[in-house]
Structure to design on (246 residues):
């Protein structure tokens, strides 16, 4: 993949993550490693991150249901983890995955299927 | 780009975005269109989204400074907008950009330069 660097990444453990900043949750971006597409954005608590580490499949925390959520558990649209990247502030994760089926509950490959109109003003 | 679909995307305006869910802010993922790399995650309020639409450069809301933030205004590391995508819930944005210089304040190309250790347990 063209976006990969050749330098080894710094390795972190769950204890290094800053869950405090957002009340126990980290925002998580999921990206398909095959296409580079950004698939979705969701949240994970510590348990979800640990389940992701241990199972090799993406887990999140559903804020609406107040429950641990294994992505694709009912639909079969699992996200197999290739790597979990951590940002510079250690408060955001990037799940790099192989997506089975589609990521979006609407049946589309990615949740980002709508576009905001851009209206650049002349100066 | 391989992640692009051939179907036209649904067009939305700022009025369609759900700013209420997170107290006036939307999470924003920034992605480099040239490499596919996920660069950073930040937040935007309505003014930041409108400035992004009107100027063609990525604007965010800095939660730490409590201020509108034009990315790269002091460093020169601007993000020129190619398109702004909206997710299915209309509460998350994806800025697809041409990144000048580097995205991360550490000098690295992307903020996601660290990796969480994965320890898949045998069943």
């Amino acid at each position: 993949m063209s976006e990969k660097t050749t330098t080894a990444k710094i390795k972190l453990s769950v204890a290094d993550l800053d869950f405090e900043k957002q009340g126990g949750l980290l925002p998580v971006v999921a990206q398909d490693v095959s296409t580079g597409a950004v698939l979705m954005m969701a949240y994970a608590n510590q348990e979800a991150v640990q389940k992701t580490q241990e199972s090799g499949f993406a887990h999140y925390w559903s804020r609406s249901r107040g429950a641990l959520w294994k992505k694709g558990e009912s639909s079969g649209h699992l996200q197999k983890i290739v790597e979990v990247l951590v940002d510079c502030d250690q408060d955001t994760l990037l799940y790099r995955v192989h997506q089975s089926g589609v990521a979006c509950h609407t049946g589309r490959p990615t949740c980002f299927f709508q576009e905001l109109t851009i209206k650049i003003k002349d100066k």
